[in-house]
Design a protein that fits this description.
This protein is of the alpha/beta class. The chain contains 17 helices and 20 strands. The N terminus is likely disordered.
Length: 592
C-alpha cells in the first residue's frame, strides 16, 4: 500500500503541487513548459531567455566564460541579490556560492530547463526569491554547447523524452565528465577558469541516469569516503540525510541516496556496488578541492516533465537548506582547506594518503524500491535478457557493497620539483591554479623519484589518450640538477590533493597515467650488436660477479635466455653509455 501511495503522490503531487509552471506567467514560461515538457530549448533560445532574465532583473548577470571548438559562447548565469557579479564581490558578501553544471552531457539536459525556471522564480515571479538571502547561484545552463546543438531525436536510446535533445560529447568527441584533471578540452579550460576564480562552496552536476528500471525518480551521489574531507562528509550527512531528502520525499519524490551500479547487469539480485569517484569526474574533482560535489541523476525512463521537476526541486531544497543554515557550508569548506594546508607542513612517512579505492566483500542489506523483472536466455544475444515491468512496483532486499577501502596509498612529500622542459605538466599546474616557485638558476637537489619497468599501455584510445595500463614502480633517490625555470611546488596549499593526484604516478588520473610523460619510456640511443658483443666479453673478464649474475639471470628467466637482444642489453645497461634518464620519473618528491 505504501509503495502504491508513493506512486500516486508522485503522479499527482509533482504534476500539480510541485510544478513550477503553475505560477509562471505565460510569457515567462520556458519552451519545456510551453510544450508540456515535450521539447527543450535550442542553444539560441537558451541564450535569448538568459539575456531576457538579465534585462528584466538587476539580480542577474549573464557572463561568457569561454568559447567552444565550434565558436559558441559558454555562458554562466550569476544570480545575486547583492549584485555580486564578480568573484571578489561575491566573496565579500560572505554568502555561500553554489555552482550548478547543466548539460555536461547535453542529451541529459534537465538541469538547463530546471535551472532557468528556478532563476525565473527567484527574480521574476518572486516565488523562490528567499533562496538568495544567503546564497549566490552560478548556473551553467549548457556546458557542452556544441554537443547540445548536435540535436536530434535519436541521441539517447535509453531515454524517455524530450522529443529531441543533444549529443553526449563535444564536437571534438570529448566526454567532459572525464576531463576535470587532464583538462584537454576548451570547454573544461573555461570551466576551470570559472571554478578557480570563484572557488564555489559546492558543485552540482545534473545528469540523467542510464541503467536498470526502478521506482526512484531521483538518485544522487556524494563522496563519503577517504577521498573527501571529514568536515565536508559531516556537512553532507546532516544536510541530505536530515533535511534535503526528507523535504523531497514530502514533495512526492522517491529518492535513492546512491548512484546505483549493479554488480551484475544480468542479475539485479546480486546487489549494488558503491564507489569513490576518481578525480576525472566532477564529484571526484570537487572532493580533491574540499567541496561537496553532488551528482544528481534523474531516471531516464521517467518522462521529461518528471525529470525537470525533480531537478528543480532538488536544487531548490539544497539552496533552502543553505539559507536555513547560513555560513555552515562555508565553515566546513574553510576548515577542510585549513586542514589540507596544515598537513603539508610536515612529512610523515607513515601517512597513507589514498590514491585508489576498492570495494570489499562486505555488504549490508538494502531495501530497494524496484519493479518486477524476469530473466530469460536470449536467442539474440546469447546472454540473459532482463525484462522489467514498471507496472509492478516491488520492494527487494538485496546486498549493497558499501565498504570502500583505500587500495593504493602514498606518504605525501613536502613538495615536488618539475623540470622546466615538462611544459604540458606545468601548463596543467597553472590551469588548476597551483602555487609554485620558479627556480631562477640551475639547482642541484636530492629527491625521491621512481624507476619504472614492465610498462604496458591500453590498446585502444580513451578520451584521445592511450592510458598506461600497468607498470612496476621502484622508489629511488637521485641527485638531479634542475634547470632554471623549473618549478618547486609545495603541498602546504589549499589544492594540495589535486597536486598529489596530478604528479603521483599511481594516481588514477595522474598526468603520467594519461600519457603526458610517455617520452621517458622511449630509448633513443642504441648499441650495435657487434660493438656490444666485444664489450660484454671485456666486462665479464674484469668482473667475475657480473659473470655469475648473468648466468643466474639466464637460469631464472627463460624469456631472457632466449632473447639475444635482451642478453646484450643486460650489458649495455651496465655501461656508462646507457641513458640514465630512461624509465626514470623526472619529477622529484621533496622529503626530509
Amino acid at each position: 500500500m505504501r509503495q502504491w501511495l508513493g506512486i500516486f503522490v508522485l503522479s499527482v503531487g509533482i504534476w500539480f503541487g510541485g510544478n513550477p509552471v503553475q505560477s509562471a506567467p505565460t510569457d515567462w514560461q520556458t519552451l519545456a513548459e510551453v510544450s508540456q515538457y515535450q521539447k527543450t530549448a535550442r542553444y539560441p533560445e537558451m541564450i535569448a531567455y538568459a539575456q531576457r532574465l538579465a534585462a528584466a532583473s538587476a539580480d542577474v548577470s549573464v557572463q561568457t566564460i569561454g568559447k567552444s571548438p565550434e565558436g559558441r559562447d559558454i555562458i554562466v548565469i550569476v544570480v545575486s541579490k547583492d549584485h555580486a557579479f564578480s568573484p571578489s564581490a561575491a566573496r565579500a558578501t560572505g554568502k555561500e556560492i553554489v555552482l550548478v553544471n547543466a548539460g555536461i552531457h547535453p542529451g541529459e539536459i534537465e538541469g538547463k530547463d530546471a535551472g532557468l525556471a528556478l532563476i525565473r522564480d527567484m527574480v521574476i515571479t518572486g516565488k523562490q526569491k528567499a533562496l538568495l538571502d544567503h546564497a549566490i547561484l552560478l548556473l551553467i545552463p549548457i556546458f557542452g554547447v556544441d554537443g547540445h546543438e548536435r540535436f536530434g531525436a535519436y541521441n539517447r536510446i535509453n531515454q524517455n523524452g524530450p522529443q529531441e535533445m543533444g549529443w553526449r560529447t563535444t564536437a571534438q568527441n570529448y566526454n567532459l565528465n572525464r576531463d576535470f584533471m587532464k583538462v584537454d578540452s576548451p570547454e573544461m579550460r573555461a570551466w576551470q577558469s570559472l571554478f578557480q576564480a570563484w572557488l564555489p562552496d559546492m558543485v552540482v552536476d545534473s545528469h540523467t541516469t542510464d541503467g536498470m528500471d526502478y521506482q526512484y525518480d531521483i538518485t544522487y551521489s556524494l563522496e563519503m569516503y577517504a577521498n573527501q574531507a571529514i568536515q565536508i562528509i559531516t556537512w553532507q550527512k546532516e544536510a541530505f540525510n536530515q533535511h534535503i531528502v526528507p523535504a523531497l520525499e514530502q514533495q512526492g519524490h522517491i529518492v535513492c541516496p546512491y548512484y546505483l551500479t549493479l554488480r551484475d547487469e544480468k542479475d539485479p539480485l546480486k546487489g549494488f556496488d558503491d564507489s569513490a569517484s576518481t578525480p576525472r569526474y566532477s564529484t571526484g574533482y570537487a572532493a580533491l578541492q574540499n567541496r561537496p560535489g553532488l551528482l544528481l541523476e534523474t531516471h531516464m525512463l521517467k518522462d521529461y516533465k518528471n525529470r525537470v521537476i525533480a531537478t528543480y526541486d532538488l536544487i531548490q531544497n539544497l539552496l533552502a537548506y543553505i539559507n536555513q543554515t547560513p555560513g555552515q557550508l562555508r565553515k566546513a569548506v574553510d576548515a577542510a582547506d585549513a586542514a589540507t594546508i596544515a598537513s603539508g607542513n610536515t612529512y610523515d612517512p607513515k601517512q597513507k594518503f589514498p590514491l585508489t579505492f576498492e570495494v570489499t566483500a562486505q555488504s549490508v542489506p538494502f531495501s530497494f524500491a524496484g519493479v518486477a523483472f524476469t530473466r530469460e536466455l536470449s536467442a539474440i544475444s546469447g546472454s540473459f535478457w532482463v525484462k522489467y515491468d514498471a507496472r509492478q512496483p516491488k520492494q527487494f532486499t538485496i546486498p549493497f557493497y558499501n565498504k570502500i577501502e583505500p587500495k593504493k596509498t602514498i606518504a605525501p612529500p613536502l613538495g615536488y620539483v618539475v623540470p622546466v622542459y615538462l611544459t604540458e605538466v606545468i601548463e596543467r599546474l597553472n590551469i588548476h591554479h597551483l602555487q609554485y616557485q620558479v627556480l631562477d638558476q640551475p639547482t642541484k637537489l636530492t629527491v625521491e623519484t621512481y624507476q619504472f619497468s614492465k610498462v604496458t599501455w591500453e590498446p585502444r584510445p580513451f578520451e584521445n589518450h592511450h592510458q598506461i595500463k600497468d607498470l612496476v614502480m621502484t622508489p629511488i633517490k637521485r641527485t638531479i640538477t634542475y634547470p632554471a625555470g623549473s618549478v618547486k611546488i609545495m603541498t602546504n596549499q589549499r589544492a594540495a590533493k589535486v597536486l598529489i593526484h596530478l604528479l603521483e604516478p599511481d594516481a588514477p588520473d595522474s598526468l603520467l597515467r594519461w600519457g603526458y610523460l610517455d617520452p621517458i619510456f622511449e630509448q633513443k640511443e642504441y648499441a650495435e650488436d657487434y660493438v656490444m658483443e666485444k664489450m660484454a666479453r671485456q666486462m665479464l673478464a674484469r668482473d667475475p660477479k657480473l659473470q655469475q649474475e648473468f648466468e643466474e639471470k639466464i637460469s631464472a628467466d627463460p624469456d631472457f635466455a632466449h632473447d639475444p637482444q635482451a642478453r646484450l642489453n643486460f650489458f649495455y645497461q651496465r655501461t656508462p653509455y646507457y641513458d640514465d634518464r630512461l624509465n626514470i620519473y623526472p619529477i622529484g618528491r621533496i622529503v626530509p
